[in-house]
Write a structure and sequence with these properties.
Layout: E1 3-7, E2 11-12, E3 18-25, E4 32-39, E5 46-52, E6 58-60, E7 68-73, E8 78-83, E9 92-100, E10 113-114, E11 118-122
Parallel strand pairs: 2-11
Antiparallel strand pairs: 1-3, 3-8, 4-5, 4-9, 5-6, 7-8, 9-10, 9-11
């Protein structure tokens, strides 16, 4: 079965850091792009970052650029989202997803597979 397993969420104080992981199973990892999305209560799901495994390209939303970094361990078929300088408005459930041949990386319906969410809460 195809699986994406997001983990690493938790409670962190403003200005702090957190690393999320997305472990993948059951598909050709090297042919896909892996995206991170987040959704807060009452808000639409938004794209945060994306990494094309095939060519190494990265993409970020304006709201996280300079604070978040997406990377991968290709041998482990795992993608990471390193989050620094966290703000209360970053609080959301974070999801990872896989898309074969990303063009519009911010579009959730373009993605083929989704993992479960992991909750990130930024609060003092």
């Amino acid at each position: 079965d195809v699986q994406l397993q997001a983990s690493g969420g938790g409670l962190v104080r403003p200005g702090g850091s957190l690393r999320l992981s997305c472990a993948t199973f059951g598909f050709r990892f090297d042919d896909y792009a892996i995206g991170w999305f987040r959704q807060a209560p009452g808000r639409e799901r938004e794209g945060v970052a994306c990494l094309s495994i095939k060519d190494g390209r990265t993409y970020y939303s304006d709201s996280v650029k300079g604070r978040f970094t997406i990377s991968s361990d290709n041998a482990e078929k795992t993608v990471y989202l390193q989050m620094s300088g966290l703000k209360p408005e970053d609080t959301a459930v974070y999801y990872c997803a896989a898309d074969y041949g990303v063009t519009r990386w911010t579009l959730p319906r373009a993605y083929d597979y989704w993992g479960q969410g992991t909750l990130v809460t930024v609060s003092s």
